[in-house]
Please model this.
Amino acid sequence: MSRVRNFCAGPCTLPTEVLAEVRDELLDFEGSGMSLIEMSHRSPEYDAVHEDALDRMRRALEVPQDFEVLFLQGGGLLQFAMVPMNLAPAGSTVGYVRSGAWGKAAHADAARATWAYLAWDGQDGGFTRMPRPEEIEVRPDTRYVHVTSNETIEGIQARALPDLAVPLVVDMSSDFLTRSVEWERVDLVYGGVQKNLGPAGLAGVVIRRSALDECVAGLPSYLSFPSHAKTRSLLNTPPMFSIYVMGKMLRWIEDRGGLRGMAERAERRSGRIYDVIEASDGFYTNPADPQVRSRTNVVFRMADPDLDARFLADARAAGLVNLKGHRSVGGMRASIYNAMPDEGVDELAGFMRDFAEAPDE
Ligand code: PMP
Model:
C-alpha cells in the first residue's frame, strides 16, 4: 500500500488508523452480521454511535451546556440559507463580513433569504486581511453578524472572534476543531466536517438554546433548527456513515490532546511552511497580512508562475498531492487539517526548500 500526502482543501486526508478501523468493521459491525450503513437508523447499534458522536463533538469543542449540537446534511452551504431563515425574524436585519470568497457567498445567500447588509468588505483590499472589531458596522435591529473564521481559498484567518454588541454567527468550515471558540460571543457556529473531522455529507451546527427558542416558526421541517434539536438530529435518515466515521475521528482527536492538541498542531505545522516561505528570499510569497495567515490553509505563489506546472508535477512525483491553489486565486495551497501527519508537513517543507534551490533540475 502506498498512501500519498494529501493536501486537498476538502474532502481531505483521514488518519490511516481510522480508515483501517472502518475497513475492519465494514462487513460485520460489532457482531451484528451487517455493516453499520446497512442498518436502520432507528436500531440500538446506530443509536449508540449517534449519541456517542454527539457527546464527543460537545466534549471536543468544549461546548457549554446552554448550546445544542446538531448534525445536518447539506454541508456548510445549506447553513448559508438555514441560518438567516431561522434566526432573522421579520423586521430584523443581519450583517455579513465579506472577508473572502466564502464570506461573500454566505452574504449572497443570506440576501436571498432576508435583508442582509455588508458589515465589512475586504474585497477591494484583495481579501488579504480580517477586520478589526471596530471596523465592523452594526446597524440598528441587527439580529446577528456573520463572520467566516477562516477563509479557505485566500488562506486568511481571524485569530479571535470579534466582540460585538450583537451575537455572532460563525462559519468555521475550514478551522473547525483546530481552535477554541469564544462561546460567549456567539449564537451559532457551523461547519462542514469534511476538512478537519471526517467524510463529506454532514455539517456540525452548534446553537445557543435561547436562539433555538426564538427561531422563526413555520419553516418546512428539514429547514427548521428546532425540529432537528427536538429529535436529536434524527428527524429523518441521517448521513450515518459520515456520523460514524466522524465519531472515530473525534476519538482520535481526543487521544491527541483534544482541541488544545489540535490548536497547537495547527500553529506549529502551518508555521513550518510559513518559515520556508519567509526564508526563500522571495522565491515563494504569501499575500496575507502575517497577523491573519491561516493555520489550516497555507497559500503561496512563486515569483515565476511558469514554474507552477513543474512544482506540481515534481511534488506529485514525491507523493505530495493536491497542492494547486483554488482556480480563482491561482498559485499553490497546502491545506493542513487535523489528520495530516507531521511527517507530511516535514516532507512538504523539505520539498519546497529543495525546489527553491534548484527549480530547473
Ligand atoms: N464555508 C467555507 C469556509 C468553506 O471552506 C466551504 C467549503 N470549502 C463552505 C463554506 C461550503 O461548504 P460545503 O461544501 O460543506 O457545503
About this structure: The pocket of 4'-deoxy-4'-aminopyridoxal-5'-phosphate is lined by residues 10, 75-77, 102, 148, 152, 171, 173-174, 192 (CB under 6 Å).
